[in-house]
Amino acid sequence: MDADTSRLLRTLLAERPVAALATLHKGEPAVSMVPFVLPEGGTALLIHVSGLATHTRDMLEHPRVGVLVTADTSGPWEPQALPRVSLQADAVVVPKSTPAYEEAKRQYLARFPDATQMFELGDFDVFALSPVSARLVAGFGRAYSLVGTGLQEWLRA
């Protein structure tokens, strides 16, 4: 993958505010929308979700999830060639009593300041979604797969 393609796809994670989150719900696939942040230099996406949400219970029962982030549909791309990042990730709750939680909260609120009140509600948790593989599509004939060290390096870029 050339540097321009890498940058295009990595920019999706830095600039797009929401992702489609796929979970396993009672043995069936379920997809929801979640705001997310990928902290600069980090490799895990952070989401802040309510314990009342189906996808939260799904992640606690089956931590492997799918995440899809796409380019804006008003861009110059045909729908089939829309740049996108598809990740398979492991979801883990960030414990509230840890410095990691405070840092995750700071990062999340830097991107979504209107979420401040939700951090005061006891049923919300921060989950770290740690990618284990990625499928990156930059358009027709421009698809790439990443795992392991290559994936970690790309996420940190």
Structural class: alpha+beta
What spatial form do the alpha-carbon principal axes imply? globular
Spatial extent as radius of gyration: 16 Å
Distance between the termini: 14 Å
How much is the average pLDDT?
Answer: 94
Low-confidence stretches: none
The helix fraction, in percent, is 25-40%
Main β sheet profile: 7 strands, antiparallel
Number of strands: 7
Strand % is: 35-45%
SSE succession: HEEEHEEHEEH
| Helical segment count | 4
What oligomeric assembly is this protein in? Answer: single chain
Fold topology:
Elements: H1 3-15, E1 18-25, E2 28-35, E3 45-50, H2 54-61, E4 64-70, E5 84-93, H3 99-111, E6 124-137, E7 143-147, H4 148-156
Antiparallel strand pairs: 1-2, 1-4, 3-6, 4-5, 5-6, 6-7
Please tell me about this protein's structure.
One of its GO terms (cellular component) is cytoplasm. This is Pyridoxamine 5'-phosphate oxidase family protein. The chain is α+β, with helices and mostly antiparallel strands and 157 residues long. 27% of the residues lie in helices and 37% in strands. Strands 1, 2, 3, 4, 5, 6 and 7 form a seven-stranded antiparallel beta sheet that branches. It is globular, with a radius of gyration of 16 Å. It starts with a helix and ends with a helix. The mean pLDDT is 94.
